[in-house]
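sry for the spam today, last one i promise. struct tokens for design, 332 residues
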């Protein structure tokens, strides 16, 4: 098993994520699904998932990766993050017996994707970082069968496994949950810097198409200074063409009594990102046509007109703006 260190006293260190959990025999890591069994880290959820669903690719959200196509989505249990506002907490925080879940092999997942004409398979709902082996075995088979692969992930990952992971991902939506170490420590029980390192690596050193999402929680990560700092970091480190989604928070888990995000808050962030020079900015969960539409980075004309997941107009030919001929960044 890769990404583990054998230590003294029959302990093993898991090195998939920056927690680097040190586990005694029979002990599970923070994620609850990577476990020391006979001095080896095993994935207890390999082959088990919480269900498969066919989604529009825009739901991931990926707006510039084979728009309007279908994607087969699945996840397992557990997570390497400790987000107090987790939108999928019923599965990420679950300690359920995995044998009660659906059992679907990588081969079966690929066949299902073929049967339903899905362009892509998504590793999502919980973080595929922790079901690394299951995700990568499936991704390899997808590649062999002409099916695209997508990761929806926190990016909270160590550099070495990230290399193997992103080599097999065609697309990814990485959560940039906030832009301060304080926010990550308090609300995610994690650190910001490893996430930034992963994002830089995936965007600048791989062939993976990357889009970013920030779930905005009023009073926590929506300060104007933080949003400006986030957008400045993006343009300085990634360029101005990485799509950025600002999504509305819905009260969940330990933030169940918080108020949901208003559209005004999303619009504030949208305008800050646009003013910072980011070419492709979107709002999620609360949307309108203006903030769901992709605009040509050259002439400013709408090239993919949407209201949320609904396609209203498509002005690209061979991935280029039909008005001025400028290529739209993404995969089409």
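last one done:
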């Amino acid at each position: 098993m890769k990404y583990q260190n054998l230590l003294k006293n029959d302990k093993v260190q898991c090195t998939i994520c920056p927690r680097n959990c040190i586990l005694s025999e029979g002990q599970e890591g923070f994620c609850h699904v990577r476990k020391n069994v006979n001095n080896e880290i095993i994935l207890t959820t390999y082959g088990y998932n919480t269900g498969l669903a066919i989604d529009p690719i825009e739901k991931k959200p990926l707006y510039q990766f084979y728009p309007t196509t279908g994607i087969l989505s699945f996840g397992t249990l557990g997570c390497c993050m400790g987000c107090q506002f987790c939108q999928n907490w019923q599965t990420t925080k679950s300690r359920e017996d995995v044998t009660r879940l659906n059992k679907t092999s990588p081969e079966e997942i690929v066949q299902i994707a073929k049967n339903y004409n899905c362009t892509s398979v998504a590793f999502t709902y919980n973080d595929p970082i922790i079901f690394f082996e299951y995700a990568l075995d499936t991704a390899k088979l997808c590649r062999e069968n002409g099916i695209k692969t997508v990761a929806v992930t926190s990016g909270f990952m160590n550099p070495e496994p990230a290399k193997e992971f992103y080599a097999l991902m065609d697309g990814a939506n990485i959560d940039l949950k906030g832009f301060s170490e304080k926010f990550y420590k308090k609300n995610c029980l994690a650190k910001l810097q490893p996430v930034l390192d992963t994002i830089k690596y995936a965007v600048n050193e791989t062939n993976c198409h990357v889009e970013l999402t920030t779930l905005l929680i009023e009073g926590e990560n929506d300060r104007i200074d933080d949003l400006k700092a986030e957008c400045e970091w993006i343009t300085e480190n990634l360029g101005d063409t990485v799509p950025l989604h600002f999504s509305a928070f819905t009260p969940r888990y330990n933030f169940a009594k918080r108020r949901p995000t208003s559209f005004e808050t999303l619009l504030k962030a949208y305008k800050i990102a646009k003013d910072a020079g980011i070419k492709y900015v979107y709002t999620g969960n609360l949307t309108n046509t203006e903030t769901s539409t992709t605009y040509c980075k050259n002439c400013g004309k709408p090239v993919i007109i949407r209201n949320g997941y609904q396609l209203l107009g498509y002005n690209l030919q061979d991935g280029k703006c039909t008005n001025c001929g400028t290529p739209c960044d993404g995969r089409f």
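The chain has a mean pLDDT of 97. ok im logging off now
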